[in-house]
Every structure is written in structure tokens, then in C-alpha cells.
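@channel sequence for tomorrow's demo:
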Amino acid sequence: MSESPVTDRYLVVRKGYEHPEAALKLLNVFTRIERNQDPGAKDLLAATEQLDTQLRNYYPFDLLLDYPDAIAQRHDRLAKALAGELDPERLDQETKRLYDDSLTEREYPRKNLDAWAGSTAYQLWGGVGRAETVKVESVFADPPPSLATMWTNLQSLETETYAKIITGELPLSAFDDYAQRWHAEGGDKMTEAVREASAGSK
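C-alpha cells (generated this afternoon):
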């Protein structure tokens, strides 16, 4: 994976513009501010936070760059700050907010849903992008009519279980119980039916 900053938008300077480098200089300034690397960034970000807005709302153009693994990097910085290995004041605005939300969640578990959602998402899933993955070819086949009701029930079981795990109503370990129920309540039959349908289509 490339470590070069990337963006999905472009800034075009018209031909003949007297100072085309001005756009790049401004972009560098905005990026340094957002990453809390500019000497005046702290005061600027604090002021906009008091106004309940984002500093980028005042930029003449919004074309901020970030790294392909920006989420994983933020996850790592957040983890280090929470472990006392990194000064929270050195965090960029977004990561500092996640840090503060994490402390709020620690002190008052699930009392502030906004604090819970962002901090939990980054702490649990922020590093997923670096995990090894196994490629599995996707095969889709409609369930046979005789198993249609069973398939509907399995989908309901999946949706309900996932929702409860995501919202924290059930622990992550509940997935193991779900998997056992899925197999016992028709998952194995459904898998075999799909395999037969797939084999017949080759």
C-alpha cells in the first residue's frame, strides 16, 4: 500500500495565473493546521471548537490530504495517548476529540452515545485495515422454495444479533453463540443447497 497522501478531489489553477504556487502553499498550511503541526493551530482549533464549528469551514477551498491508512494511524495515536505513551496535546483535532470521548466513555459508560460511538469504533476497529485478510470467492444463489422460510429466519437472526453486538447490548463473544444457532437452525442445510446450486451452474 502506498504511503503517499491521497485525495479524491482536485484543485485546478487556471493557465496564466500569476502565482499558481499560492494554492499549494495554502494547502500545506491547511494540512499542517489539521494535523496540529502549525504553531498557531492550537489557538485556531480551540476558537472554532468554542463556536461549535470546524476551522475548515473558513478555508477558501477544502482539499485536505490524508494518508491511505489514516484511520489506522489515528487508531494507533489514540491507543498510545490512552496508554499514556503520547501527550494528548500533541494529537490533531479529530484524534483529540476521540481521546476526550474515550475518557468520557471510561468514566460514564454508554451515558453519552456520541462519545461511545466514535471512541469505540476507533478503538475496536481502527486497526482492522492492517489485519491479514483471506480472499473468499463470493457465490450467490437464491434459496430453493422449500428453504425460503428458513432463509428468512436466518437473516432475521443475523440482523438482530449484529445489531445487538454493534450497540453493545451483547458482547462480541455472542457471535459464537450466533454461529452455533445459525448452523443448528438451518445454516448447514442452506449452505449445502447453495453448494449444490453452484455445482449445477458450472
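heads up for whoever presents: The chain is about 55% helix and 0% strand.
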